[in-house]
């Protein structure tokens, strides 16, 4: 009986320790140490992360401060270049021409470049609505003139459209020694906030860039509502505002217990060359809570390890073999279809596929580079095709393109558009007398003179062909156009270019003037025809004079031209 009882117990034990149980026990034996080690590692990680969070974020904040320094430094470099150009140009018109063409497209944090006289009135700007604005009452303008160095203003509302901004200022006297002008730039605060993007989106973390008065200039996207607000009005930041702003140190940090009971660590960094500071605050309790959530998530993940072992193998095979092949096939297909931006993400590929991905990327990069070079060459050819090399002005093709643009704009806004057709009197005789080299020199001098007049009148000068030039004048009525025509005629006389076969013994020009308000019944060619007709009349009136011609639309939609002078 005892033997039978023992056998029965053995049978039950074998049933309990069957293959399924043994596999389950083996899985527990294999996984349990890993789980225990993982749990211990996560607990250690919790302690380390809390200790390292402040140090890590301070480093990130310092990098962000460096990036802000680079933004401000790039603005200062542009202003120094403009100040040097102004000091070297010796005149308002040339420096204004350069200013309008010098706003870099790769520096989107600069909204507008301006030049102001010593009286504070803006002489020229890349945005014409600022011209004439008086900045003499602005503290940053006064400080730049007094100190003779680069100045970055506090937070202001820009005039005339009340846009939040800061102003960067550099006096021309730093180069010339004579206080005759100041170069300014409006800085885009949105871009200064984008530079701080790596400081945003983190629980328990606040980061802002403030001016010397404590007004927030920039903040990450999730804290953008703070821009323009005083630091004292921000929860959890007001306690350290006074100490951070008044500190003489470039960098500093402190810890304190906030009013809500949270423990906070604060770092502040001065942006060199300015009074702005980047202030970063960390709520240690919230940082710790995030780590605790990660630990709980890790426990849950470890609990499912055994269940998903086989599924993990299938997923691994899919990820390590099939997906990389499909990714490379997709890239090859996109390249074949002409998408030269296609690249293989090597960090998502197993090591065995990296050499192949590198070869694909190198091939795509070479093709993309060749395409960019081709586009750049085409752009240069387009510019060359629109410039007259002799006079330095736009050629007929460039003039026609500008006329079409100004015509559409004048038609849209209901403004006037005037055209001056300018012809050198007896130019064939000039060439026959002095030779073609002197003729070319004469045309070059006339081109320079007309370029200056165009700059002063906000016009557009071009060489229409041969010895004929034109001057397109937006927002200009016929009376003003005649005045500008007289200025051009007088400017040519002032050159005193000898011309012994002319009745005046010097080079003169005849000028035809036409002006109209573009509408549906007119076309740009009508304006050219009217100016040509006026020029023809000027020739027949003895040359060296200015004649105007009117352009008028009739009810039938056709055009008629009426001689007005």
TrEMBL record:
Protein name: diguanylate cyclase
Listed Gene3D superfamilies: 3.30.70.270, 6.10.340.10, PAS domain
InterPro entries with a match to the protein in the record: Diguanylate_Cyclase, GGDEF_dom, HAMP_dom, Nucleotide_cyclase, Rev_trsase/Diguanyl_cyclase, Sensor-like_sf
Keyword flag Transmembrane helix: yes
GO molecular function ontology, one term from the record: diguanylate cyclase activity
PROSITE patterns hit by this protein: GGDEF (PS50887), HAMP (PS50885)
EC number(s) per entry: 2.7.7.65
GO biological process: cell adhesion involved in single-species biofilm formation; negative regulation of bacterial-type flagellum-dependent cell motility; signal transduction
């Amino acid at each position: 009986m005892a033997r039978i009882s023992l056998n029965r117990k053995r049978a039950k034990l074998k049933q309990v320790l069957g293959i399924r149980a043994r596999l389950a026990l083996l899985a527990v034996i294999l996984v349990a140490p890993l789980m225990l080690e993982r749990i211990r590692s996560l607990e250690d990680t919790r302690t380390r992360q809390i200790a390292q969070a402040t140090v890590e974020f301070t480093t990130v904040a310092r990098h962000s401060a460096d990036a802000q320094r680079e933004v401000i430094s790039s603005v200062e470099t542009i202003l120094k270049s403009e100040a040097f150009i102004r000091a070297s140009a010796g005149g308002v018109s040339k420096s204004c021409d350069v200013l309008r063409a010098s706003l870099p497209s790769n520096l989107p944090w600069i909204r507008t470049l301006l030049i102001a006289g010593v009286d504070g009135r803006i002489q020229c700007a890349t945005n014409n609505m600022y011209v004439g604005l008086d900045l003499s009452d602005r503290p940053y303008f006064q400080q730049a003139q007094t100190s003779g160095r680069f100045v970055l203003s506090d937070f202001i509302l820009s005039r005339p459209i009340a846009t939040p901004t800061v102003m960067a200022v550099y006096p021309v006297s730093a180069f010339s020694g004579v206080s005759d002008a100041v170069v300014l730039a409006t800085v885009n605060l949105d871009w200064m906030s984008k530079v701080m993007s790596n400081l945003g989106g983190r629980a328990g973390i606040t980061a802002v860039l403030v001016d010397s008065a404590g007004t927030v200039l920039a903040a990450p996207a999730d804290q953008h509502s703070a821009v323009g607000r005083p630091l004292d009005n921000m929860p959890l930041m007001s306690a350290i505002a006074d100490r951070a702003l008044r500190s003489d140190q470039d960098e500093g940090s402190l810890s304190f217990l906030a009013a809500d009971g949270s423990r906070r660590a604060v770092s502040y960094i001065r942006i060199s060359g300015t009074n702005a500071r980047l202030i970063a605050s960390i709520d240690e309790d919230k940082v710790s809570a995030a780590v605790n959530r990660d630990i709980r998530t890790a426990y849950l993940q470890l609990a499912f390890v055994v269940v998903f072992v086989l599924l993990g193998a299938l997923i691994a095979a899919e990820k390590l073999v099939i997906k990389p092949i499909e990714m490379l096939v997709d890239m090859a297909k996109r390249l074949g279809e002409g998408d030269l931006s296609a690249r293989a993400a090597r960090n998502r590929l197993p090591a065995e596929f990296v050499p192949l991905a590198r070869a694909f990327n190198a091939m795509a990069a070479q093709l993309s580079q060749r395409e960019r070079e081709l586009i750049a060459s085409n752009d240069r050819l387009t510019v060359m095709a629109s410039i007259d090399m002799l006079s330095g002005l736009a050629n007929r093709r460039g003039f026609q393109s500008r006329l079409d643009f100004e015509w559409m704009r004048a038609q849209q806004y209901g403004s006037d558009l005037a055209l001056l057709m300018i012809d050198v009197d007896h130019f064939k005789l000039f060439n026959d007398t002095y030779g073609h080299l002197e003729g070319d020199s004469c045309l070059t001098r006339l081109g320079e003179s007309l370029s200056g007049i165009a700059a002063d009148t906000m016009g557009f000068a071009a060489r229409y062909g041969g010895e004929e030039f034109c001057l397109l004048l937006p927002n200009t009525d016929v009376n003003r156009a005649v005045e500008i025509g007289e200025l051009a005629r007088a400017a040519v006389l002032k050159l005193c270019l000898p011309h012994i076969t002319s009745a005046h013994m010097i080079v003169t020009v005849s000028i035809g003037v036409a002006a109209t308000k573009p509408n549906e019944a007119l076309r740009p060619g009508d304006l050219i025809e009217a100016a040509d007709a006026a020029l023809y009349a000027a020739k027949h009136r003895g040359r060296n004079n200015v004649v105007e011609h009117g352009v008028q639309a009739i009810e039938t939609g056709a055009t008629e031209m009426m001689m007005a002078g």
